[in-house]
């Protein structure tokens, strides 16, 4: 068994309408599923991805209307990367961010790659990372109707960054349980802090990495809007997911057991520093209940929630995504 890379990242927003505007109109990603949080159907769950909603390209958001500010700290997923095709694309995005008044830090180096660190309207900590020299997991395909340049468009998720105080137990889970190996490091931008460690799985590359930042100068993060809820890793199918459950149980790591999310099967657990990990299957996918040409236009509910549709819709503020442009 070996994980194939990042499957999706799920974060928190306080306003679905503003979130939809930023990620579709400014970043040019496609809303591939407008549904609800299956554990709390009073809130939207929005999925942004490449044109087909391929695994490894999904950045998702739970709408928690009363979410307060995030106070960054340890025991957190402190950074989410989005892949672009090459270094030239980064120059395009600097110009676009300036045009739309998006807060960013310009083009810089992160190890051997060029990146742009930037923030959405709720201070979500984001990075565009160049695939110029990527030889690992291939990226997806930008949406052909994107409001941004298709040539320079976002092609998937890059590395997630974990910020922790004690790396030893987290690294043990990554390497001894989850099949990651350390493949490098790069300097921290914070004076006096250790280098950030790079861990890779599967085919490797930008779509299959976790970066571990050790900080001894921060308190525990207080999450809110603009924070990340969990990161999910790719598993081939349900049969393999059962094997992962057995591995976690044998290692005495408490876990959720298999959870049917309809669009994929999931398994959740927390690593020793309290960060929530998910293992998720590559399929069935988002075209299971919607035509590929009309993904995200209507409120999609899995079959086990369909009989509650009227009650669920009554609790949601309507979000117009018809045309999804």
TrEMBL record:
List the Pfam families hit by this protein, alphabetically. Glyoxalase
Domain VOC positions: 5-131, 156-282
Q: Which UniProt keywords apply?
A: Dioxygenase, Oxidoreductase
| InterPro entries named in the record | Extradiol_RC_dioxygenase, Glyas_Bleomycin-R_OHBP_Dase, Glyas_Fos-R_dOase_dom, VOC_core
Q: What is this protein called?
A: Ring-cleaving dioxygenase
Q: Which GO terms describe its molecular function?
A: dioxygenase activity
Q: Which organism is it from?
A: Ornithinibacillus caprae
Organism lineage reads as: Bacteria, Bacillati, Bacillota, Bacilli, Bacillales
**Is Oxidoreductase one of the keywords UniProt gives this record?**
yes
PANTHER family assigned to the protein according to its UniProt record, in alphabetical order: RING-CLEAVING DIOXYGENASE MHQA-RELATED, RING-CLEAVING DIOXYGENASE MHQE-RELATED
Q: Does the keyword RNA-binding apply?
A: no
């Amino acid at each position: 068994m070996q994980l194939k890379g990042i499957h999706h990242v799920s974060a928190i927003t306080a306003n679905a309408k503003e979130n939809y505007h930023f990620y579709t109109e400014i970043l040019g990603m496609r809303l591939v599923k407008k549904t609800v949080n299956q554990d709390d159907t009073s809130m939207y769950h929005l999925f942004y991805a490449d044109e087909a909603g391929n695994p490894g390209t999904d950045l998702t958001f739970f709408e928690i209307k009363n979410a307060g500010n995030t106070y960054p700290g340890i025991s957190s997923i402190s950074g989410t990367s989005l892949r672009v095709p090459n270094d030239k694309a980064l120059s395009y995005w600097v110009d676009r961010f300036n045009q739309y008044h998006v807060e960013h830090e310009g083009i810089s180096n992160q190890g051997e790659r060029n990146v742009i660190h930037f923030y959405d309207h709720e201070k979500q900590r984001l990075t565009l990372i160049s695939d110029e020299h990527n030889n690992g997991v291939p990226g997806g395909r930008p949406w052909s109707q994107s409001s941004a340049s298709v040539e320079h468009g976002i092609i998937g998720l890059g590395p997630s960054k974990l910020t922790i105080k004690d790396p030893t137990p987290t690294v043990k889970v990554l390497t001894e349980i989850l099949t990651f190996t350390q493949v490098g490091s790069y300097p921290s931008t914070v004076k006096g802090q250790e280098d950030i460690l790079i861990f890779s799985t599967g085919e490797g590359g930008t779509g299959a990495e976790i970066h571990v930042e050790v900080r001894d100068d921060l308190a525990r993060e207080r999450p809110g809007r603009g924070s990340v809820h969990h990161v999910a890793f790719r598993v081939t199918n349900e049969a393999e997911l059962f094997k992962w459950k057995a591995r976690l149980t044998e290692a005495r790591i408490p876990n959720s057991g298999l959870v049917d999310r309809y669009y994929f099967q999931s398994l959740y657990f927390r690593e020793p520093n309290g960060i929530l990990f998910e293992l998720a299957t590559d399929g069935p996918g988002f075209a299971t209940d919607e035509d590929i040409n009309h993904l995200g236009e209507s409120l999609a509910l899995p079959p086990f929630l369909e009989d509650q549709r009227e009650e669920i819709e009554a609790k949601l503020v309507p979000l117009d995504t018809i045309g999804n442009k």
